[in-house]
Design goal:
single chain; 434 Repressor (Amino-terminal Domain); 2 domains; two-stranded antiparallel ribbon; 2 strands
Length: 170
């Protein structure tokens, strides 16, 4: 049962009008009407009070179930290579061309995860493959060589880098 159904059925079972429920919650009658029609949802701060007034716990109000079925779980993003096959690059980390590196630390400062050791310039922590270190390296010493990752980047560039036209909303 969805929250709108729980609100409506419990309100009716308690013999409350929409206006009476609204008064107890400090909201308008039309707000309750919108909740019951699934046009809107109650403010999150009202949920504990709403559950008490309706005589249910929050899990019942929100239709929480411990086990999820496949319909509730959205598809997980699968990165693709240019040939549309799955790209597997979880362990890919940026490498350093030491003949170009001046040890300035720009790559370490740019890493949002703090995964590059500022003393050694090596990726030692979790890399999220954002390539901030590659872009910020003034000497172009940081790079990736994992073929799946590079193919995924190429696929993204091929399919998602067109410039959108500007438009004005009136």
């Amino acid at each position: 049962m969805k929250i709108n159904d729980v609100i409506r059925t419990r309100r009716q079972a308690l013999g409350l009008t929409q206006e009476a429920l609204a008064e107890r919650l400090g909201v308008s009658g039309p707000a309750v009407n919108k909740w019951e029609k699934s046009l809107n949802y109650p403010d999150i701060t009202l949920l504990p009070t709403l559950a008490r007034v309706l005589g249910v716990d929050l899990n019942t109000l929100l239709s929480f179930q411990e086990d999820m079925d496949r319909g509730e779980i959205g598809p997980y993003y699968t990165p693709l290579k240019t040939d549309k096959t799955p790209a597997k690059f979880l362990k890919a980390k940026p490498l350093t061309d030491w003949s170009k590196c001046c040890q300035c630390g720009a790559c370490a400062r740019a890493c949002p995860m703090g995964s590059i050791d500022p003393k050694t310039m090596e990726a030692v922590g979790l890399c999220i493959k954002c390539q901030a270190c590659v872009r910020k390296c003034t000497r172009h010493a940081k790079f990736f060589e994992d073929p799946d990752f590079l193919s995924h980047v190429a696929m993204l560039e091929e399919n998602y880098t067109r410039r959108a036209e500007n438009f004005i909303l009136v």
